[in-house]
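Handout for the seminar on molecular recognition.
Each group receives one record of this type.
Step one: identify the two inputs.
Step two: read the structure output and locate the region that could contact nicotinamide-adenine-dinucleotide.
Step three: write two sentences on what you found, then compare them with the reference statements printed after the record.
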Amino acid sequence: MARTYVVTGSASGIGRATVDLLLGRGARVVGVDRHDADVVADLSTPAGRTALVGAVHDRTGGTLDAVIACAGLALPEPVTVSVNYFGTVATLVGLRPMLAAGVDPRAALVSSMASFMPTDAILVDACLDGDEPHALDVASKLATSEESSGLVYSSTKAALNRWLRRTAATPDWAGAGIPLNAVGPGVVLTPMTQGWTSTPEGRAYLDEAVPMPLTGYARPEQVAVLLAYLASPENSLVTGQVVFADGGSDVVLRGEHAW
Ligand SMILES: NC(=O)c1ccc[n+]([C@@H]2O[C@H](COP(=O)([O-])OP(=O)(O)OC[C@H]3O[C@@H](n4cnc5c(N)ncnc54)[C@H](O)[C@@H]3O)[C@@H](O)[C@H]2O)c1
């Protein structure tokens, strides 16, 4: 029988490429996004996250085989915290009971190589504490200066990695037979990065910050195949991992002592 997947961020970029790949392989996919999706939900708000869970339940009868959480923003603004961290965690936690009822259930989220760039420890802790008002307050302050606003995005992804590491081996996930992993892309050619990749100044910045000696900038389809693998029954052993799909930027920037 066809597997049933939920993919957030399905209207664009990596999420869109993942939906296309899974549909091409005969899966049933429920796409979630703010627009142009099977389930239209705003993951920046608690009401939107609750609506997502209810709508997915209605469409699937409460049984799911995999969740792939791609929705995200790269704005140096507080809303990025709400979507990237709180929206992603709420998606995975909210849909977990439906996954537990599925066959060979799997979950994956999209982190970033930005997670090993400088972060703000207070923002990361506020996320991990589940304290969204405090996290938004910290992010608002970071967003006021050009020097610190870049920490907002990297902090959301570092917090996701730590949430993943805390969560993957617990009874609800590994104990329930649900591998939970992340993919950490380098620069992927999607609308999110167009502002940088379309100008010589932007490309010069990216080439230094995110060197990708293997590939240069990636296509979203190259990330989708890894997400699809992590969310497939073939992945029966990998859990709690952030798999960097970054054309080599991790190894260039962090060297041989990080793995
Ligand atoms: N493009 C890159 O270089 C890159 C690198 C590393 C990680 N990522 C991550 O990959 C994921 C996908 O990014 P992308 O590059 O495909 O970007 P994208 O902008 O093409 O797609 C992101 C999707 O998320 C949706 N989204 C944003 N806010 C939402 C909300 N409040 N509720 C519901 N949906 C919302 C958007 O509508 C959009 O369809 C993100 O989590 C991003 O942080 C991207």
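Reference statements: The two ends are 37 Å apart (CA to CA). Residues 9, 11-15, 33-34, 42-44, 70-74, 83, 110, 112, 185, 187-188, 190-193, 220 surround nicotinamide-adenine-dinucleotide (CB under 6 Å).
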